[in-house]
Amino acid sequence: QVQLVESGGGLVQAGGSLRLSCAASGRTFSTYNMGWFRQAPGKEREFVAAISTSDGFTYYADSLKGRFTISRDNAKNTVYLQMNSLKAEDTDVYYCAAQIVLGPVTTPEQYQYWGQGTQVTVSS
């Protein structure tokens, strides 16, 4: 069982920055692919970014490249999402996910564990 706890969400003005953190339980964190997704009410969960196991290869939604950066600290069992130049349309609940059985990283169904989500609100 893996538990994920997100933090760092909040209210920010357009053009501002936030850094989300996701702390994971478990002794084999470095073997998980980790991802960030976001979801608005009534919409499907949308891929944001992912980072592979120990080699740290990163993946991004095309529309977010250049503004968002995913990173991980395996010593702290934590994955981060740095979000810059935020826009009103980035307002969503952001979820951290862990993929234990490795597979495609952009599909939410391929992740086995999820955090509870953290709200990000960008005011225009």
Distance between termini?
Answer: 40 Å
Radius of gyration: 13 Å
Instruction: Write down how many β-strands occur, each being a DSSP E stretch of 2 or more residues.
Output: 11
Which regions are unreliable across 5 or more consecutive residues at pLDDT < 50?
Answer: none
Q: What does the main sheet amount to?
A: 7 strands, mixed
The total of helices stands at: 0
The coarse overall form would be globular
Strand content is over 45%
- Structural class based on helices, strands and sheet pairing: mainly beta
Helix content: under 10%
Order of H and E elements:
EEEEEEEEEEE
Average pLDDT number: 95
Describe this structure in words.
There is one protein chain. The chain has 124 residues and is an all-beta fold. Helix content is 0%, strand content 48%. The chain has no helices and 11 strands. It has strands spanning 4-7, 10-13, 18-24, 33-39, 46-51, 58-60, 68-73, 78-83, 92-99, 113-114, 118-123. Strands 2, 4, 5, 6, 9, 10 and 11 form a 7-stranded mixed β-sheet that branches. Strand 5 and strand 6 form a beta hairpin. It is globular, with a radius of gyration of 13 Å. The mean pLDDT is 95.
